Amino acid sequence: MTRASDSDRDTRPMDPVDLAAAYLQQNKAEPPQVGVVLGSGLGAWAAQLEQAEPLPYTSIPHMPTPSVAGHSGRLWRGRRGPVRVACLEGRVHAYEGHPVERVVFGARLLATLGCRAVLLTNAAGGIRSDLTPGSLMLITDHLNLTGKNPLVGWSSRGGHPPFIDLTRAYDAELAEAARAASRNLGQELAEGVYAGLLGPSYETPAEIRMLRTLGADAVGMSTVLETIALREKGVRVGAVSCITNVAAGLAAGALSHDEVQETAAQARSRFSALLDAWVVRAAALG
Ligand code: HPA
User: Fold this and answer.
1) What is the C-alpha to C-alpha distance for residues 159 and 3, in angstroms, rounded to an integer?
2) Tens digits of per-residue pLDDT, 21-62?
3) 54-237-106 Cα angle (round to 5)
4) Taking CB atoms and a 6 Å cutoff, what residues make up the pocket around ligand 1?
5) Average pLDDT, the chain
6) pLDDT tier at 256 (50, 70, 90 boundaries)?
7) Which pairs with CB-CB distance under 8 Å and at least 24 residues apart come from 185-189?
8) Which residue's CA lies nearest to atom 9 of ligand 1?
9) Pick the catalytic residue: 20, 123, 247, 283?
10) CA neighbours within 13 Å on the CB side: how many for 103?
11) Best residue for ligand 1 mutational test, from 219, 242, 250, 266 (most atoms within 8 Å of Cβ)
12) Is 98 a catalytic residue?
């Protein structure tokens, strides 16, 4: 019989994401199928889940809590029709000063809880001329311009090799499901490339011209790090931006977080209808 020697034994502390998941799994509820992350001003969808009780992030061990207006910080586990959903109402951002592993904590938690697909949502500034406030844009690819990557230090705990393929970071079948859901609803769904920047200041007009040259259609301060962390876990990723403003310098006037939240609120019913239908189609992909 072989016995692990002291030197073989894994003495590293448990991953805080696993501890948070173990806490949430105490009631042995069936695992969620689809995860949803709700961005700035888009949190209202969570309260429409059926059989759901919100759990403040503060009650979940190790879970980081958002400090920004429009990000409540509650986990909802419930149903949308037949589909078991885990939904993060609010996220934390790198610009709040969190290290990158805290930024992706929620996304990794959804994966650890069992979600096979995660739908990420955000508010974004429109760079392409047709992306006016209120438009919904399916993210087909991204530019990670945060200067960070959640896979740095990957070997710290049983991770896969960090050289993961991001050729199709955003799942083609989930994208098709979003298109079909929008068509069915008679709603427009634009598509484009999302540039994720660190923030928290908005961009200068010169930076927006640079981003356009680089191939960005919309710009925001989230999502890209979560996408990378989820792909490392093999989770399908779908993402949609609610365009809340025209990007800096492309229209008269200054940008403000209030405007971002107000426009997101105005798009609420179309956004919710899309998510409702998308969640159901996402679960069907298995
Ligand atoms: N820039 C960056 N992030 C954003 C914007 C923007 O114009 N709008 C909403 N989030």
Assistant:
1) 24
2) 999 999 878 899 999 999 877 878 999 998 888 999 999 999
3) 35
4) 123-125, 202-203, 219-221, 244-245, 247, 255, 260
5) 91
6) confident
7) 185/270, 185/273, 185/274, 185/277, 187/136, 187/270, 187/273, 187/274, 188/135, 188/136, 189/136, 189/137, 189/138, 189/240, 189/274
8) 124
9) 123
10) 23
11) 219
12) no
Candidates 72, 135, 222, 241; catalytic one? 222
- The closest-lying atom of ligand 1 relative to the alpha carbon of residue 126 is 7
Q: Write the DSSP assignment of the chain as a string of letters.
A: -----TTTS--SPPPHHHHHHHHHGGG-PPPPSEEEEE-TT-GGGGGG-EEEEEEEGGGSTT-----STT---EEEEEEETTEEEEEEES---GGGT--HHHHTHHHHHHHHHT-SEEEEEEEEEE-STT--TT-EEEEEEEEEESS--TTTTGGGTTPPPS----TT-S-HHHHHHHHHHHHHHT---EEEEEEEE--SSPPPHHHHHHHHHHT-SEEESSSHHHHHHHHHTT-EEEEEEEEEEEPTTSSSS---HHHHHHHHHHTHHHHHHHHHHHHHHHHHT-
- Tell if the pTM clears 0.90, that is, is over it: yes
**Residue 149 is a catalytic residue:** no
Considering 20, 21, 40, 203, which one is annotated as catalytic?
40
Bridge partners for 142 per DSSP:
194
- Which amino acid type is present at position 47? A
What domains are there in the chain, each with its CATH number? 32-284 (3.40.50.1580)
Residue among 95, 203, 242, 259 whose CB has most ligand 1 atoms within 8 A, to mutate: 203
Catalytic residue among 181, 245, 247, 283: 245
Rounded average pLDDT over 10-26: 87
From ligand 1's centre to the CA of 71, what distance in Å? Answer: 15
